[in-house]
Specification:
This protein is α+β, with helices and mostly antiparallel strands. The protein has helices at residues 16-41, 76-85, and strands spanning 52-53, 56-58, 69-73, 101-107, 111-112, 115-125, 128-137, 146-147, 150-156, 162-170. The strands form 3 sheets. The protein has a 4-stranded mixed β-sheet with strand order 1-6-7-10, with no helix packed on it. The longest helix has 26 residues, at 16-41.
């Protein structure tokens, strides 16, 4: 004969209404508490205590770097030399005050003209300056044109290492950077 099966489930099932309420409360807790804490300590939403915003601006650039690399430039001369050695152009008057800022650059090397970058945030985190950026790639058919996707950011001088955290997105390119053919 068949052994009798228990209809009791473990862990016990909760009514759907209670599960929905628990899910909503958990989501609210994850969304509201960090924002409330950030407001109490004067941080922008999304930051955690210990993170601090850093002033920055995107610097227009077109440098034909042949290999993917990240660099930090401390002086105008260092930047101009790098640009000239890599087939780019620099305006006569450097728009960056190197006494107050450094240039942090991410070069992808040869790539698609349908790729661009946006910078979402620049924070001091764990003793370094972290640049959060997104590489946007057009998801549709794209003209086959060689370009050099890159992002150059003037970051407030703090005497700390600078790192990029790059996310990838396949979407229409709302980039803050221009195409570099």
């Amino acid at each position: 004969m068949h052994a009798e099966r228990s209809h009791e489930l473990w862990p016990p099932r909760l009514p759907a209404r209670r599960l929905t309420l628990m899910y909503v409360m958990g989501a609210l807790r994850r969304a509201v508490i960090p924002v409330a804490l950030a407001g109490l300590v004067g941080l922008p939403p999304g930051c955690v205590p210990g993170d601090a915003g850093v002033s920055f601006s995107i610097v227009p650039s077109c440098v034909r770097v042949q290999q993917a690399t990240e660099r930090v430039f401390q002086t105008a001369e260092e930047w101009q030399t790098f640009v000239q050695e890599n087939g780019g152009m620099v305006s006569d008057g450097s728009p960056v005050d190197f006494n107050r800022f450094v240039l942090a650059a991410r070069f992808d090397g040869p790539g698609s003209a349908c790729t661009g970058f946006t910078v979402e945030d620049v924070l001091v985190r764990d003793g370094r300056i972290e640049i959060s950026a997104t590489r946007h790639t057009w998801p549709h058919a794209c003209i086959l044109l060689l370009a050099y996707p890159q992002v150059v950011v003037a970051v407030e001088r703090r005497g700390m290492p600078v790192v990029f955290r790059i996310a990838d997105a396949r979407d229409e390119v709302p980039s803050q950077t221009r195409r570099c053919p």
